[in-house]
Amino acid sequence: xxxxxxxxxxxxxxxxxxxxxxxxxxxxxxxxxxxxxxxxxxxxxxxxxxxxxxxxxxxxxxxxxxxxxxxxxxxxxxxxxxxxxxxxxxxxxxxxxxxxxxxxxxxxxxxxxxxxxxxxxxxxxxxxxxxxxxxxxxxxxxxxxxxxxxxxxxxxxxxxxxxxxxxxxxxxxxxxxxxxxxxxxxxxxxxxxxxxxxxxxxxxxxxxxxxxxxxxxxxxxxxxxxxxxxxxxxxxxxxxxxxxxxxxxxxxxxxxxxxxxxxxxxxxxxxxxxxxxxxxxxxxx
Length: 285
What we know:
Elements: H1 3-7, E1 8-9, H2 11-18, E2 25-28, H3 38-44, E3 51-52, H4 55-59, H5 74-83, E4 92-95, H6 101-112, E5 118-121, H7 124-130, E6 156-157, H8 159-168, E7 172-175, H9 179-183, E8 200-201, H10 216-225, E9 234-237, H11 243-253, E10 260-262, H12 265-269
Parallel strand pairs: 1-5, 2-3, 2-4, 4-5, 6-10, 7-8, 7-9, 9-10
Helix pairs in contact: 6-11
C-alpha cells in the first residue's frame, strides 16, 4: 500500500470497502468555523453507516488560553470514539463537507491518540455525491468500540517549542493562514493580528485545492519552496490548529511523517500578551 493509500481513500474505493462484511468505521465530522452546525448537514444526508462526531466538543478540548481547539482530554476522547464505534486496530475513515480541514483534524487527532488505521475520504462528502453513490438519513447505532486512547503518537508543539523552531534557523515553522492574516493586515477571529516571529507563510491554497491534494512530488516542491528540507525539523500552525492539521497531513503525503502540529496555534500564542508578534511579509516582520 502506498503512502497515499494509507492516508487517503477515493470515493469509489470506499464504496467497495463499505460493502465488506466488516467495513471501516465511518465518521462524519462536517464542521464550519461560523455555523450552521455540521450536525444539520449530517441530518440532511450522510454516507450510509456514518456516525456524526462533533469537532468542537468530541475531538477538541474546550476553548480557552490553550487555544480555540486545544487537545482533547484523552479519557473524554476515548469515550467519544468508543461511542462512535471505533475499535482497536480497526480501520476508520473520516470525511467532512469537502474542504478537508475538519477531516484532517479528525485524522490527526486519531493518529495522535495512537490509532494508526485512519484515512480521509479524498474530496469529502461532495466527492461521494459526485460519484453518484448513495446517501442516507438513518442514524445508525454502532456497537460500542474498544479503542484505547494513547496520546502522543504524533508530535506536537507548545508555544515555547514553536518559538524556538521559528527562531532557530535549523528548521521551519509554517504559518498556513491566508497571507493578509500572516502580514497582520487583518484578523477576523483572534484579538491580535500578525505572526509568530520567524515563521514562514505558506497559505493552505499552496498545497491543497478544494479538499484535494496534488501528487507527492508536487507537494515536496511546494514545501521546499517554503523552506522545508528533508533534514530540517518542520511544524505548522494556523488560527486554532484545524487548517494546520491539514498541512501536517499534506506533509505526511510528501514524506514528512515527523511534522509537528502547534495545536494551540495563533489563538494560543496571542492569549499571552508577553509573546512577541511580527507583522509584514517576511518571517521576522
